[in-house]
Write a sequence for this structure.
């Protein structure tokens, strides 16, 4: 229990979330480069990468999910506060805890579901529908990886909320 | 439990979760998972496929790329220069620099896809400058809040990318559909300011600018104008898809910023990090909404909702009026993207069943969302401007925004009376 309390009190998980987010920023720039390359090849050389549309979709998956943990660390995900900001701090705190626990449950379900999809693709040998027919689990893996860090960050945030640990 | 009862349960669960302050993505996802679970379907299978299909989308790839381009323009200072440059051209009109607020917001809207970014960028430069010059505060904050909403109407627009992807209609046509209404609203805002200031000239001091100042200002405006012209032309002429346009425009903005010595590794890193954060916020809501829709599909909402509307014997006009009222009411409480994603699952079957043009409805919906952005108590643009304009109360903001709110409502009316305003330009495009 002490180790978990220490983890919640430290900034280790927050730093991990930032690093995963940095990785997604690199993917963003690669994604831009890939599409620019595709346009240049088409307009100038009359040819194509043949993978830009397919791969940029996979890259979007990584960009979208890998930063979710850092957004959670900064408590920047969008919510509607018009009701809660009119409540007393005690009631607001209670609702905040319930929200964290329910979201933890949802993200756990999403993580299990996405990991299940990856395992299913490995078991059945599913390949993507594009030109190179790469194993589908490779791009799909981006989702459980991102959700794992989101789950970890949310878990730590929830502990901080229950144990009233200031960040 | 019948499908109708189940629908009521999950809709109530959704609104209860949101009212409790839960994150929008989680509220949508939890209500969706609840619906799928009560229906008896396999939750993990349904959820995993929805996640994968909603995230792996070439059309949606335009979202981070347009955000990235806006970030580069913003952080490199190119968008700030737009305001300075535009001021030299419009400062002499009755209303003076207030027209710069409208014109700069309209121009920045053509770079950014977000209303909040538009208001924040122009407001940060304009409010201190115009306060110092003695401009009427109410007109300054009102014009900035209202003109900032053009960010989601004038292309590129993040809301239109999400709408187009959801309704499976052309994002390029939606972009072009927003051009004429966007310009029309900007002109109406400016006409109101000019009339108001012509009646009461004390509201705004005149700004003197010579032709020398104007020619000099081109140096400030050209980078922004080049990017805007590139985006509009490449989409209108069908040279590139909106996603390709976004990628090339981002690269062009980056090259211009480097050439102007306004880019460093630190700025680039900040742009990329801010972009991925915003993308994660938006895309998680999309995932939540797709899971929610999965539950609605199990409950046969695509049949239930049009059936319900048909049983009410309402005329198509009345149905539209009811939809508008729902958007205006919900717009007071939701931000634009959440409102789009929460309502589309219900609105889509109605629009398709009634045979309404999805491009036209998309434009009207965006104007309705714009109204929500400046409607208290949750109008995001109001808070952005309040944050910049120190000491402004919500009451002052509300009074300042009223005339502009009326102009936006007039815009909705005009779009209904003259649908060509939204449909003419898409019909002239080289490629859909």
């Amino acid at each position: 229990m002490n180790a978990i309390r220490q983890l919640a009190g430290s900034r280790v998980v927050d730093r991990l979330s930032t690093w995963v987010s940095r990785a997604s920023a690199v993917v963003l720039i690669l994604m831009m480069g890939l599409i620019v390359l595709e346009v240049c090849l088409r307009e100038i050389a009359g040819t194509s990468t043949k993978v830009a549309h397919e791969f940029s979709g996979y890259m979007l998956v990584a960009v979208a999910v890998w930063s979710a943990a850092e957004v959670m660390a900064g408590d920047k995900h969008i919510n509607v506060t018009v009701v809660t900001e009119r409540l007393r701090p005690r009631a607001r705190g209670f609702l905040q805890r319930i929200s964290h626990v329910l979201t933890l449950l949802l993200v756990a379900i999403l993580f299990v579901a996405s990991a299940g999809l990856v395992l299913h693709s490995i078991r059945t040998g599913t390949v993507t529908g594009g030109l190179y027919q790469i194993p589908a689990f490779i791009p799909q893996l981006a989702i459980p990886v991102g959700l794992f860090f989101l789950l970890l960050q949310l878990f730590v945030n929830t502990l901080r909320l229950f144990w009233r640990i200031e960040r | 439990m019948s499908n109708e009862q189940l629908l009521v349960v999950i809709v109530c669960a959704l609104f209860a979760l949101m009212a409790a302050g839960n994150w929008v993505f989680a509220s949508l996802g939890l209500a969706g998972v609840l619906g799928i679970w009560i229906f008896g379907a396999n939750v993990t299978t349904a959820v995993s496929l929805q996640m994968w299909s909603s995230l792996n989308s070439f059309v949606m790839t335009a979202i981070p790329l347009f955000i990235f381009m806006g970030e580069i323009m913003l952080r490199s200072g190119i968008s700030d220069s737009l305001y300075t440059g535009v001021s030299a051209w419009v400062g002499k009109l009755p209303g003076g620099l207030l027209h710069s607020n409208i014109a700069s917001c309209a121009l920045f809207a053509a770079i950014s896809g977000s209303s909040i970014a538009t208001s924040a960028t122009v407001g940060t430069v304009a409010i201190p400058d115009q306060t110092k010059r003695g401009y009427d505060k109410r007109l300054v904050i009102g014009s900035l809040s209202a003109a900032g909403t053009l960010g989601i109407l004038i292309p590129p627009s993040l809301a239109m990318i999400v709408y187009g992807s959801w309704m499976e209609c052309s994002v390029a046509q939606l972009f072009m559909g927003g051009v004429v209404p966007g310009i029309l609203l900007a002109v109406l805002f400016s006409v109101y300011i000019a009339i108001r200031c012509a009646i009461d000239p004390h509201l705004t001091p005149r700004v003197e600018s010579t032709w020398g100042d104007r020619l000099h200002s081109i140096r400030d405006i050209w980078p922004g104008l080049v990017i805007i012209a590139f985006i509009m032309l490449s989409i209108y002429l069908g040279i590139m898809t909106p996603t390709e346009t976004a990628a090339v425009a981002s690269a062009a903005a980056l090259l211009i910023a480097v050439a102007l010595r306004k880019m460093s590794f630190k700025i680039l890193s900040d742009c990329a990090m801010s972009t991925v954060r915003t993308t994660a916020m938006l895309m998680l809501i999309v995932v939540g909404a797709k899971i929610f829709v999965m539950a609605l599909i199990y409950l046969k909402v695509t049949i239930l909702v049009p059936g319900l509307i048909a049983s009410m014997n309402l005329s198509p006009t009345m149905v539209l009026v009811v939809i508008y009222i729902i958007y205006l009411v919900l717009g007071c409480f939701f931000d634009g993207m959440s409102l789009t994603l929460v309502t589309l699952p219900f609105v889509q079957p109605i629009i398709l069943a009634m045979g309404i043009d999805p491009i036209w409805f998309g434009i009207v919906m965006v104007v309705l969302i714009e109204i929500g952005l400046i409607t208290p108590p949750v109008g995001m643009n109001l808070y952005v401007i309040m944050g910049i304009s120190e000491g402004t109360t919500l009451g002052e903001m509300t009074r300042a925004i009223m005339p502009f709110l009326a102009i936006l409502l007039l815009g909705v009316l005009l779009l209904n009376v003259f649908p060509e305003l939204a449909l003419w330009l898409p019909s002239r495009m080289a490629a859909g």
About this structure: The mean pLDDT of chain B is 90.
